[in-house]
Specification:
By secondary structure, this protein is α/β, with parallel strands linked by helices. It has a single domain, classed as Rossmann fold, CATH 3.40.50.300. 58% of the residues lie in helices and 12% in strands. Strands 2-3-1-4-5 form a five-stranded parallel sheet. Helix 1 crosses helix 8 and helix 4 packs parallel to helix 5. The model has no long low-confidence stretch (mean pLDDT 95). The protein binds BIS(adenosine)-5'-tetraphosphate.
């Protein structure tokens, strides 16, 4: 089983590149951001609880997203690999994911970490905010808060996987197709059996 984490700060291209990667490699896409937005759209209790965190640019509590991923793994027994997008975002989430995968006799194969500077991230997210309807993309202070959350809580996830030699940094600025090719090269080098 080939399990990939696409890692990076908010706006680094995780969602953009995930769409292409799942089409090429047939992985099951698990985006905690998409799942949470879907829960909000359906006005479920989980969605209503998550919305207040997301609107402020804060991370949703670990236990909520870990439970979501646990169910998603159970609901996809036929998958021959997963692409985790926006998860894990804390070391507690990374530890929980490793345990869930170990219970299924598998593990993370590689963490591809998109590298993008803060000012470029802010520019991209404000641009997306003009059309996305996402309230967390529309004002700069909220976007800066998301980046601060990333620095404070999420950057440590890369350090966690570096201990296991699983992280590859990928330049994430420039042409979307070229970035996709860099990601594909790393995947193609690995055993995907
Ligand atoms: P996410 O949905 O994960 O969203 P994101 O980090 O904002 O965006 P992403 O990185 O996927 O965007 P992309 O670059 O593709 O999270 C939203 C919120 O959900 C979080 O703030 C948090 O509250 C909550 N949440 C989610 N997961 C959680 C977890 N595990 N734990 C706790 N809370 C969680 O796109 C950005 C823009 O850049 C797009 O407009 C795109 O077109 C553009 N773009 C992409 N590549 C480009 C390039 N090369 N050049 C120019 N523009 C580019």
């Amino acid at each position: 089983m080939f399990n990939l984490i696409l890692f990076g700060p908010p706006g680094s291209g995780k969602g953009t590149q995930s769409e292409r990667l799942i089409a090429k490699y047939g992985l099951k896409h698990l985006s905690t951001g998409d799942i949470l937005r879907n829960e909000i759209a359906n006005r479920t209790p989980l969605g209503l609880a998550a919305q207040s965190y997301m609107d402020k640019g804060h991370l949703v509590p670990d236990e909520v997203v870990i439970e979501m991923i646990s169910s998603a793994l159970d609901n996809n027994p036929q998958a021959h690999g997963f692409l985790f997008d926006g998860f894990p975002r804390t070391t507690a989430q990374a530890e929980a994911l490793d345990k869930l995968l170990a219970q299924k006799g598998t593990a993370i194969s590689v963490v591809l970490a998109l590298q993008v500077e803060e000012e470029e991230l802010v520019k991209r997210l404000l641009k997306r905010g003009l059309t996305s309807g996402r309230s967390d993309d529309t004002d700069e202070p909220k976007i800066r808060t998301r980046y601060a959350e990333y620095q404070k809580k999420t950057a440590a996830v890369a350090e966690y996987y570096k201990k296991y030699d699983k992280v590859v940094d990928i330049p994430g600025e420039g042409d979307v197709d070229e970035i996709f090719q860099s990601l594909s090269r790393e995947i193609d080098q690995r055993d995907r059996a």
